[in-house]
Hints:
The complex is a heterodimer. By secondary structure, chain A is α+β, with helices and mostly antiparallel strands.
Amino acid sequence: MHEMGLAQNIFDIVLRTAEQNGVGKVLRINVRAGQLRGIVPEQLQFCFGFVARESPIVEEAELVIETLPIEGKCKGCQHEFSVEEYRFVCPECEREDIEVLQGMELLVSNIEAV
Amino acid sequence: MPIKIQVLNNILEINESYAEENRRVFDEHNAFAMNMMSSPGSGKTSLLERTLERLDSSRVAIIEGDMQTTKDAERLERFGVSIVQISTGNACHLDGKMISDALKDLDLTDVRLLVIENVGNLVCPAEFRVGEHAKVVVLSVTEGEDKPLKYPLMFREASLCVFNKIDLLPHLDFSLEEARENARQINPQLKFLSTSCKTGEGLEEWMDWLESKMKV
């Protein structure tokens, strides 16, 4: 949810980066979103399409969203695993004390520009 | 030839920085900040009323969030507690900046408990840290045992889950055990309490939990 607000934040980050690096046009924006964030990529891209029009530097950029699956590590036996269906239980030893290694990210990773 | 520029910026960095600043203010005043969340009508405000009947109001401050009306703040004002009402308009959750702005109108001197009563919504409030020490989710027993599975982020983020309106259990097929199991699947560290604001059952344990979090 809140893809519009996130789109605006992405726009601000990208425009700032573009201006700091003196690029003329951003071609592609790579975003990493952990699955726990519940981001709907199509909605985010849709919203970003509107927001990006605010600047000729950003307006044609393709927003690419990589959804990162939830990865956990058992604090007991140290086993690392993919968390399926939000079950935070170690498949090896069934312990429930799990450290989330991946799944809560929400960042602009990099941009490609000319 | 296109160039690649590393960015690595958190998209929620602005909210995070407000949240951290809020947290700093809470810690400076030794106030335990609790973010209370639930569906609309689960009983957050009622639970707060019962709480204020049992606590010295001068030790408590409340930031009340609703989309419309000041009804909740009006219910709580009669206890003489410091309270700020945020009417979000159409924002479905409170965020770090809203709390930061509200803190400008609150004197936290001697406050040991700051309650942030969030907008009734099981989805969005969990996504936005506001600097709280703990998130509490209130789930009334009329809502169904499956809600923790349907709203994983909310139950994952919370450290306490309060099952409310337990006086209604004789009229329902609700299984507290199943609800607990579902919630524990998402968050094995989650603690549970069961309360009724109507009969007073479970309120002592709720007060004990609050007192254990508040610094002397």
